[in-house]
Design brief:
The protein is α/β, with parallel strands linked by helices and 335 residues long. The protein has 2 domains: 68 residues; 191 residues, 3-Layer(aba) Sandwich (Rossmann fold), CATH 3.40.50. 54% of the residues lie in helices and 12% in strands. It contains 12 helices and 7 strands. The strands form 2 sheets. The chain has a 5-stranded parallel β-sheet, with helices on both faces. A hairpin with a 4-residue loop joins β1 and β2. The two termini are 50 Å apart. The protein binds adenosine-5'-diphosphate, magnesium ion (MG) and zinc ion. The site of magnesium ion (MG) has 5 residues, from α6 and β5. Magnesium ion binds next to α6 and β5.
Length: 335
C-alpha cells in the first residue's frame, strides 16, 4: 500500500515529536533532581567519565586501567544511583528516557533482521511509524464529517413522544437506546460488539454513532467514520481509476479499531458495491473487531436488499438497535 509523501512527512514529524518530548521530560526530571540533590551530579559525572574511558579503551587509545575494573566501577555507580533514587522514594528508572515506543526508541525504524536466516536486511519501518501513518490516512478519510456537532450531551430525549405509537413509547424506547449507547461508549474496547442502528430518517442514528466515535477517539482508538456512499465511491475510484492513489481505503476500513458505516442502503447497488461491502464487513467480523452500521433499512428490508451473505452476517453478529419517533430535523424546523 502506498501512502503520499505528505502523510509520510506527518508521521515522521509525529515520531520525532514523541522522541523530543521523551528526551526533554527526562532532562527536566534530571535537572530538578540534581538541583535538589547535588549528589546526583557527582555520580553522573563519574559515570560519564568511566563511560568515556571504557570507550577509549575499547578503541585501543588507552590501556593503563583494566577494562574489567572500569566496567565494575560503572556498574557500581549505576547501582549507587539506583539506590539513591530508591532511598528518595523515586522509581529506579526515574531518570531514564521514557520513549513511547520501546521497540525503536522513537526512531521510527528498526533493524530488519531475519531470525531464522540470521541476516540483516538493513532497516524497516517500526510498527509505531506505520500506526501513525495509518492514523493520518484515516483522518484524511473522515475529515468531511461534522463530528464536533454530535455529543451525548447534545442529545435530548424531549424530541421523542411519550405517548404510545404502535404500542411503543418512543420516549421510553429511545431513553433505553440512549443509555445503552452511552454505556457502550464508556466501556468501549476492541472486544465491544458490533451495532446495527436502524429506523427512519432523522431519529438520531448518525448523531449517536458519532457520539460513540468521539468517546472512542478520546480513548485513543483509531476510528473511521463516514457514509457508505462516500467510502464506496472512493474505493471504486481507487480500484478502477487511472491515477495511482495515495491511500487504500478498503484496507483502512478493514484495519480501523472502530469503523462507522453511515447510511447503509442509500448507495446505488451494483455487483461492485455489494462485493466491496461484503469484503469490508466480513473481514471485520472475521477479525472480531467492532463496527457500527446505521441504516434506514429494517431487518426484513436488509434481507431483501442484500445477498444472504451480507444480511446474515449483520443480523447474526451485530446487536440490532431500533430507533423510533418523529423526524427530529423536521421537529427542529417547526420550533
Ligand atoms: N435526540 C436528539 N437530540 C438532539 N438533536 C438530535 C437528536 N436526534 C437527532 N438530532 C439532530 O437531528 C439531525 C438528524 O439526526 P441524525 O442523527 O442525522 O438522524 P438519522 O441519522 O437517524 O437520520 C441532526 O442534526 C442531529 O444532530
Ligand atoms: Mg443518518
Ligand atoms: Zn517504534
Amino acid at each position: 500500500m502506498a501512502y503520499s509523501r505528505e502523510l509520510h512527512e506527518k508521521a515522521e514529524a509525529e515520531i520525532k515529536r514523541r522522541k523530543l518530548n521523551a528526551e526533554n521530560e527526562a532532562e527536566q526530571r534530571k535537572k530538578e533532581l540534581t538541583e535538589k540533590y547535588p549528589d546526583f551530579q557527582l555520580i553522573d559525572n563519574a559515570l560519564s567519565n568511566t563511560g568515556i574511558e571504557i570507550i577509549s579503551l575499547l578503541a585501543g587509545c588507552k590501556n593503563d586501567v583494566g577494562i574489567e575494573e572500569l566496567k565494575k566501577k560503572n556498574t557500581e555507580l549505576k547501582n549507587e544511583r539506583a539506590n539513591l533514587l530508591k532511598a528518595l522514594g523515586f522509581p529506579e528508572d526515574y531518570l531514564d528516557i521514557k520513549y513511547t515506543c520501546k521497540k525503536c526508541n522513537d526512531m521510527g525504524y528498526i533493524e530488519d533482521y531475519d531470525e531464522e536466516r540470521k541476516v540483516s536486511y538493513g532497516s524497516k519501518y517500526c510498527e509505531c511509524y506505520l500506526d501513525a501513518l495509518k492514523r493520518y490516512a484515516a483522518n484524511e478519510l473522515t475529515r468531511s464529517t461534522p463530528l464536533e456537532l454530535s455529543y451525548f450531551e447534545d442529545f435530548s430525549l424531549d424530541f421523542y413522544p411519550k405517548a404510545l405509537i404502535d404500542g411503543e413509547s418512543p420516549y421510553n424506547e429511545m431513553a433505553s437506546v440512549f443509555n445503552s449507547c452511552k454505556k457502550y461508549a464508556e466501556n468501549f474496547d476492541m472486544d465491544s460488539t458490533s451495532l446495527y442502528f436502524y429506523g427512519r430518517t432523522g431519529l438520531g442514528k448518525t448523531h449517536l454513532s458519532l457520539a460513540i466515535a468521539n468517546e472512542a477517539i478520546k480513548k485513543g482508538y483509531n476510528v473511521i467514520y463516514g457514509s457508505v456512499i462516500n467510502f464506496l465511491n472512493k474505493m471504486e475510484k481507487e480500484k478502477f481509476g487511472r491515477a495511482e492513489s495515495a491511500v487504500d481505503t478498503e484496507e483502512l476500513l478493514i484495519d480501523a479499531d472502530l469503523l462507522i458505516l453511515d447510511d447503509l442502503g442509500a448507495e446505488f447497488s451494483t455487483a461492485y458495491t455489494v462485493s466491496a461491502l461484503y469484503n469490508v464487513i466480513n473481514s471485520r467480523v472475521a477479525r472480531g473487531v467492532p463496527t457500527i452500521i446505521s441504516s434506514n433499512l429494517s431487518l426484513e428490508e436488509l434481507k431483501s436488499r442484500y445477498p444472504e451473505s451480507i444480511a446474515s452476517r449483520i443480523i447474526g453478529t451485530f446487536a440490532t438497535v431500533k430507533f423510533i419517533g418523529k423526524d427530529i430535523r423536521q421537529l427542529m424546523n417547526e420550533q
